[in-house]
Amino acid sequence: MKLISVCFAVYNNESGLTILYKKIVKELETNFPQYDFELLFVNDGSNDNSLAELLELKKQSNDNRIKVISFSKNFGQMAAILAGWHYAKGDVVINMAADLQDPPEQCVAMIKEWEKGSDVVISYRISHGTPLLNKITSRLFYKMLLPNVPPGGFDFALLGRNAMDAVNSIKEKNRFYQYDILWVGFNVKFIPYDKLERTIGKSQYNFVKRFGNFMTAFINVSYLPLRLMSFLGFSFAVAGFVYSLSILHAYYFKATPFQGWTPIMMLLLIIGGLIMLMLGVLGEYIWRIFDEVKRRPNYIVKDEYL
Questions:
Q1: What per-residue confidence (pLDDT) applies to 208?
Q2: pLDDT band at 87, cuts 50/70/90?
């Protein structure tokens, strides 16, 4: 029997995990009796009772298809996703949220597309209860980094074994997994779905985390900041050269004005600010180079319940 692996990154999802388990099992058993499946829950250092709920669920259900990986601390969603992909043994692997916002019945549509020959099936959101500001920033984020994907990007994805092995072969420290999935190529299919409103718990993503993810993804996949710095540096060098010629002309023709404090201060502030900005951008790239060179693992597993 072919094996379907469904991976969940778990962080403070107490009370919703049992409901999630029952829903996904019902969909898979009803629609794909010809397949076996495994459910991989990666506990990303939750500080609530998520791990206890998963272990109790595994014990009470006596379901060996439930597999739990627990980190030594919170390493972040990206690390939890990578761990799930590493442990998944399926012929097809589905990455799915553990907060009940991704409807389990969407897995059915994705698996059917895989059966038709798609190596990668991506579900993109067409509606959800996200605040307007988050919707706008999300659209801008994906428009800048992944212009060929539907607006709003994606998190819910299925990968066939070949595509999954290709993504797992990427050994970078700082990852933007949506970009990685598309970068490896293969036959990709996009299908829409309605993201459900969150009814249990609350979102763990605040502005700081969202901005941090943006910076990691932006620097990981784009050379635009470096090219922009080069363009600005060249532009200001040309402008400075032209301005220097005008000052030299004024000097020889005795037309140098006495009042020059304002333009000098403006130039100092603008150029000084640009220099600090450029140093900050270079620092971001250098820090990521340093992070890669250290070769620390993306996560540390404390316990395995397989």
A1: 60
A2: very high
pLDDT in tens, 154-181: 778 899 999 999 989 888 777 778 888 8
pLDDT value for 174: 77
Angle at CA of residue 185, ends 31 and 145, nearest 5°: 105
With helix as H, strand as E and coil as C, how does 27-91 read?
HHHHHCCCCEEEEEEEECCCCCCHHHHHHHHHHHHCCCCEEEEEECCCCCHHHHHHHHHHHCCCC
Instruction: Measure the CA–CA gap between 17 and 42, rounded to whole angstroms.
Output: 12
The residue ranking higher by pLDDT, 147 or 195, is: 195
Percent of the chain with pLDDT over 90: 14
The whole-angstrom separation of Cα 248 and Cα 255 is 10
Phi, psi angle pair for 277, to nearest 5°: -65, -45
CB 161 within 8 A of CB 175: no
Predicted confidence band of residue 93 (pLDDT cuts 50, 70, 90): very high
Residue located via tokens 């990206």: 78
Q: Would you tell me the crossing angle of helices 17-31 and 105-115 to the nearest 10 degrees?
A: 40
HSE-up (13 A, CA, CB side) for residue 207? 2
What's the predicted TM-score (pTM) here? 0.70
**Alpha-carbon distances, residue 136 vs 122, 131, 293 (angstroms):** 21, 9, 35
**Amino acid (one-letter) located at 96:** M
Pick from 8, 9, 67, 65: which is nearest to 37 by CA? 65
